[in-house]
Design goal:
heterodimer, A: 86 residues, Non-ribosomal Peptide Synthetase Peptidyl Carrier Protein, Chain A, 55% helix, 0% strand, B: 699 residues, alpha/beta, Peroxisomal Thiolase, Chain A, domain 1, eleven-stranded mixed sheet, nine-stranded mixed sheet
């Protein structure tokens, strides 16, 4: 799981172009969206949906599903480990 | 002054021409069908396609496609324009050409331009010479030229590219030209075909419904893309009377505002839509209770319909007039929707009925639209068109018999250039180019980056392309120099828009196929991203527009600002010119023979214009002209009208060439003007433009 979490953090930094952010800067329990966490928005959620499909073979049909799955790195990693097809 | 509409033409999924469109509207025949003409993998999305192939349209127009490159956007534009010009009796019935004695401007709106052919031939462009003639049909201005040239010579052409409000903004510029007294007649409209490019882009934003769309319904799940074109012939009532043209309706008013909130979403309180509608009613001189029908933007996305409902409730209170979205008939015809829905409004007024909002069952949080066939006389109707980037516009139409006038303030305020900032091949944001210019040695020199970090928070900067960072850095510098925090208008000219992101998206589409496309790239591919991202950064909710008409993109933006400033509609405006160039696009331009050995560069200029001299103005911008394919005599007349002036030489040796390079000529002329008036002249094989600058000390 730790390995997946680190991989995921690196992928998110890359795909969302989070300049000056390092994996260790991201609290795995902190919210990804909104001012209290990383401050991501709806476009980032769409990019994460693409990332889930490309890297883990998980296809989300409804952007609203993302709200639950992208709550934090831990929630996301948990979902990926249970649903990944690659 | 009364502005009358004497011609209207339309083509969309519900018919070719007004007669077919009217039957579809009255008999509730939707044009949403499975994909048929566009070659794409995305057959899961129903669309509103025009039921004609390109070959069929060519046959209707007498065009031989093997002899002349055409695009679907241009062909649909021609079919609809023919109907409008015929109704207004502006073309010879035999030759189908404009009468020589009359010449007037044509203003179009499109965002897709020639993308249908670019996406088809992109790999050929890169790998062989088989489709080189289509390299130049990519940009929006080329599309407008093809449409216009089919009928003869128009005196001026320009193209608005503000995503889904493009055609509505073309109506606004056309009306401003009439109000200024410069012209008596103008043709305005827009055209847009469905492409794989934006079908995949909208799919990546997850806002396409796999079922026929249901605007304002609780179960709505997105929009269906549509396509089409529509045009209006606008003229002064006096001119129409003089030439015995019959008015079918009047253009009563218009409003344009910017939501300045987000690149692809509308704010929850619908600030931009609210301001646009409010301005439109004020401009028409009518009260909310005089509006008999609203043709809503109503795309069918969760976000638009609730935010538009909120904006309408804010403006109309408890007394919301009957409203509906006709996108359930046509699909979302994007850049053309402004005039397609305008023509639908005209048909509703002429035949006294309310167009139905198809497939509506439950309102949920939204307003309840008209969902039963209703006959009703309509005196004033309001038509909304909102675009990505919060480019929101609203038009008001009145019956021909209505007597109230559009305010004709023929005041001629002086316009001062308060400040100007550039980022180019030269040292950014400074005047080093005057004494120590960096020599241009390479065929392509890309701009140097400005230090943008002081202007843009990291979270926002991370997904901005270079062109957007330059746009904000120059805008912030120019506004700070002028001492103006929030400009009343932001108007940008760009030849190619955000070509870098467009190219990345197109490349992925052509090489990797239509899967897993990147939403961030797509949302930065529209030309109006530039003006709207500057508006978000400056929190500017005023007028916002983007022009994309090859070498006169910047001059069009300046003309728009000048018309509004002189009339007193606004007191200041930020006018910008931005273009970027990628190595691969540069290679294509070289291959097509368009650069003729010139040094290609990138351009970023922002300038603050104001009707008040703050004591530090660089100069006065006194007059300007944009001419399309002028005769030598017309050029001479334009020069003569400016009086005794000296002509400023081209800055091409210093700044190189780009679509918006004339902005750098103006920038340099304004920075070096002494005690004599100076004219900035631009000329190429199609366009001739003049901008007259006067030193501030000389009245």
């Amino acid at each position: 799981m730790e390995e997946l979490i680190l991989k995921l953090k690196k992928e998110i930094i890359e795909v969302l172009n989070l300049e000056d952010v390092k994996p260790e800067d991201i609290d795995s329990n902190a919210p990804l969206f909104g001012a209290e966490g990383l401050g991501l928005d709806s476009i980032d959620a769409l990019e994460l949906i693409v990332l889930m499909e490309k890297n883990y073979g998980i296809k989300l049909q409804d952007p609203n599903q993302g709200k639950e799955i992208f709550k934090s790195i831990n929630v996301m990693a948990d979902y990926i480990s249970k649903n990944r097809t690659k | 002054m009364k502005i009358v509409i004497t011609g209207a033409g339309i083509i969309s999924a519900i018919g070719v021409g007004k007669a077919e469109t009217l039957v579809s509207l009255r008999e509730q025949r939707s044009g949403i069908r499975p994909l048929c003409y566009l070659k794409t993998d995305h057959h899961e999305f129903p669309v509103g396609e025009v039921q004609l192939s390109n070959d069929e349209m060519c046959a209707m127009l007498g065009i031989d496609p093997s002899k002349q490159p055409t695009t679907r956007t241009a062909l649909m534009g021609m079919v609809a324009l023919k109907e409008a010009l015929e109704q207004a009796q502006l073309i010879d019935s035999k030759t189908q050409r404009l009468k020589d004695s009359e010449t007037f401007p044509l203003i179009s709106g499109t965002t897709v331009g020639g993308m249908d052919k670019s996406e088809l031939y992109y790999l050929d462009f890169l790998e062989n010479d088989s489709r080189n003639e289509y390299i130049s049909t990519h940009d929006c201005g080329a599309c407008t030229e093809m449409i216009a040239d089919h009928f003869g010579r128009f005196s001026m052409l320009s193209t608005l590219s503000t995503a889904c409000s493009s055609a509505a903004n073309a109506v606004i510029l056309g009306t401003e030209l009439l109000r200024s007294g410069q012209v008596e007649c103008v043709v305005v409209g827009g055209s847009e075909c469905i492409t794989k490019f934006h079908l995949n882009g909208f799919a990546s934003l997850m806002i396409l419904d796999k079922e026929p769309c249901r605007p304002f319904d609780e179960s709505r799940a997105g929009l269906n893309l549509g396509e089409g074109a529509a045009w209006l012939v606008l003229e002064t009532e006096e001119y129409a009377r003089r030439r015995n043209a019959t008015p079918i309706a009047r253009l009563a008013g218009y409003g344009n505002a910017c939501d300045a909130f987000h690149q692809t979403a509308t704010s929850a309180d619908g600030e931009g839509p609210y301001l646009a509608m409010k301005k439109a009613l004020a401009n028409a001189g009518i009260k909310p209770d005089q509006v008999d029908y609203i043709n809503a933007h109503g795309t069918g996305t969760g976000n638009n319909d609730i935010s538009e409902s909120t904006a309408i409730r804010r403006l109309f209170g408890e007394q919301v007039p009957p409203m509906s979205s006709t996108k359930a008939f046509t699909g979302h015809t994007t850049s053309a929707s402004g005039t397609i829905e305008a023509v639908i409004c005209l048909l509703a007024m002429q035949h006294s009925f309310l167009p139905v909002n198809l497939r509506f069952n439950n309102a949920g949080d939204c307003l309840t639209p008209v969902h039963k066939t209703t006959n009703k006389p309509l005196r004033y109707v309001l038509s909304n068109a909102f675009g990505f980037g919060g480019n929101d516009s609203a038009l008001v139409f009145g019956t021909a018999a209505n007597s109230s006038d559009i305010a004709n303030q023929l005041s001629s305020n002086k316009v001062y250039l308060l400040s100007a900032a550039q980022i180019s091949a030269q040292e950014p944001l400074c005047n080093d180019w005057k004494d120590n210019p960096i020599p241009l040695t390479e065929p392509l020199t890309r701009s140097r980056e400005a230090d943008y970090k002081q202007f843009i928070p990291p979270l926002e900067a991370r997904r901005m392309g270079r062109i957007l960072k330059r746009a904000i850095a120059t805008a912030r510098t120019a506004t700070a120099q002028a001492g103006i925090d929030t400009p009343e208008a932001i108007i940008t000219g760009t030849g190619l828009g955000c070509i870098e992101n467009t190219e990345i998206f197109l490349d992925a589409l052509c090489r990797q196929g239509e899967d897993q496309m990147m939403p961030t790239r797509f949302m930065q591919s529209t030309h109006n991203t530039i003006s709207s991202i500057v508006a978000i950064n400056l929190k500017a909710h005023g007028y916002n527009a983007t022009y994309a008409h090859n070498t006169v993109s910047f001059q069009s933006a300046l003309l728009d600002a000048m018309l509004q400033l002189r009339r007193g509609a606004i007191c200041n405006a930020l006018v910008c010119a931005h273009d970027e160039m990628t190595p691969s696009y540069h290679a294509l331009l070289c291959k097509g023979g368009y650069l003729k050995g010139k040094h290609a560069t990138e351009c970023a200029v922002s300038m603050m214009l104001s009707t008040k001299d703050n004591g530090h103005a660089l100069c006065e911008v006194a007059d300007m002209r944009i001419l399309y394919r002028p005769t030598e005599a017309e050029k001479q007349r334009a020069r003569k009208e400016l009086g005794d002036v000296s002509y400023f030489g081209s800055t091409e040796p210093i700044f190189g060439t780009s679509y918006t390079a004339p902005s750098l000529d103006l920038y340099a002329a304004a920075n070096t003007i002494k005690d004599k008036p100076v004219a900035v002249e631009y000329s190429d094989d199609k366009y001739y433009t003049l901008i007259l600058l006067r030193p501030c000390s000389v009245s």
